[in-house]
# Entry
Amino acid sequence: MRLVTYLLTVLLGQTRVGGRWFDLIPIALITWIAAHSQMDADAEQYRSAYEGLDSYFLFPDYGVGFQTLMRIGNGLGIDFDTFKTVLIFAVLAIYECVLLRLTKDSATVWSLLMVYPMLVSIVQLRQTLGLAFVVIALAFLVARGIRGIPWFIVFVLIATSMHVTCVLYVVMVFCFLGSVRTLTILCTIITLIGTILESTIFSAVEHLIPSNKVAYFYNEHISFYTKAALIALVVLNVVIMHMVCRFVERSNVATQRTVREMRVIYRICTLFMCYIPLIIEGTDFMRLDRAILVFVFIGISVGLATSQTKLAVDAPPLYKRRRVVVNMIVVRCAALTFAVVLAYILIAKNDMDGVIVPLLLT
# Structure
């Protein structure tokens, strides 16, 4: 029953039923699943850390911000299940605030996020909370441009206190340098050098993250199949945002603010190509792309909303209206397929028993 409800919510999100009010459904459903998930992959580890604090051997490895939240929750007498539910709800609330600011079609974004990566995000609590603050940080860059850099740095630091890998997002302050073409060439060169000379990128990261943690993150094996999928994902993010930007710029109905925001997301996706040497070498680094995906899904939703506005404003002939509607259906199907493929490769293929089964099938 839980699986059926989840899938129906995903499909309803693609229809935009209820407008903004629909957002309450995925938020409530995901929060409920988080509250009732006790056998997922990382549950026992976090429960032991929460109840034992300093006496638990992994607790000192947690970020100081996450340690502080655990101490506060423990001190208030809140049990772990409630603590986890509150944190997941906070993450969802952060996402909703960002969506309210950047897109009119938040239902589509929630639909795609529910397919990937929301389920695995419920399990990986520390990094999920850290990446939620990264999403806020990136939203300041998208909404305010260069003027948003001070707030961006503040929220990246908060994110880093939850999970140390989030500090790597500080590189995004350079997304405004040069033209997109220059940025693409530079990122491609850095990616090739970093992939060929792995030790070089390893040494560079050690300047931001303690060497013992970097060694730990690199210690987990990622299959060639998954590496290829991750590289394809990062490149596809750039391609998708390039197409969204071109469409929005030529639509004649999108506001200048919307065009500017889509261009910044395009720049962020382009700069993220520099991370390829990292994300294909460690699972904790691999998860960094989840924050970028939120903005790619926002870009897709903005493209769809722009098409809807174009239909209403331009009032084209019937045959043109049909073509636009068909294009919108194709885009929705392609986006949903994109998210499903990601969920299969990055969740179902490796973590079926630790994520999908305990969250949706028990």
Summary: The mean pLDDT is 87. The chain has 18 helices and no strands.
